[in-house]
Amino acid sequence: MSNNSEDVRTQALKKIKGEVVAISSPLSAERIKNNVFPVIGEGNHHADIMFIGEAPGEKEAATGRPFVGRSGKFLNELLEGIGVKREDVYITNIVKDRPPKNRDPLPAEIEMYTPFLDRQIEIIKPKVIATLGRFSMVYIMNRYGLAEQVESISNMHGKVLETVIEKQRVKIVPLYHPAVALYNPGSREDLKKDFLVLKDILNS
Ligand code: URA
Questions:
Q1: Is the pTM of this model over 0.70?
Q2: What CATH number does residue 56 fall under?
Q3: Atom from ligand 1 closest to the CA of residue 91
Q4: Terminus-to-terminus CA distance in the chain, angstroms?
Q5: To test ligand 1's pocket by mutation, which of 93, 94, 113, 136 has the most ligand atoms within 8 angstroms of CB?
Q6: Fewest Cβ atoms nearer than 10 Å: which of 7, 25, 45, 91?
Q7: Smallest Cα–Cα separation from 60: which of 48, 73, 51?
């Protein structure tokens, strides 16, 4: 990949950042009140794999970085477990501002922020999208032509689905959200096993 195309991606992602920073919404209004930031995403702009979570939590909003709290620590361990460096992947969320008290994102919030996510996917062109949690799974499956295959996350996690985004074949792998694994040891083991599925795909 030439530096030139790298610059194009970085510029396009910076433009998204500017737009999210400038957005006016009930969630963005919390930024000034709480002295917090939107979380756009971070990682390799040429990543083969993109992880998509739900929305920033407290630590993420305080730092402007995705998955830096307890769930992030476990995500880092999972990546390490399959020999993947965090800086080689791209990590983002469907909703870019923290919902108060970490409540579930509302449909209107998902609708407002996901056009930015769609553009991040188009710019980064990942070969694999790993969704973290039910909200991200449902959004991505509905958005990319897999709505009829949506089942509960306990049935979907670790499966490899195929879709086409901008004429490119993309694998979608639904995963449990790492936060679930913090209080459910069974999900923790499921996540570890499902990361081996990611490892196989990346090595194939
Ligand atoms: N949970 C998420 O879904 N995203 C983050 O960035 C952090 C916690």
A1: yes
A2: 3.40.470.10
A3: 6
A4: 20
A5: 93
A6: 7
A7: 73
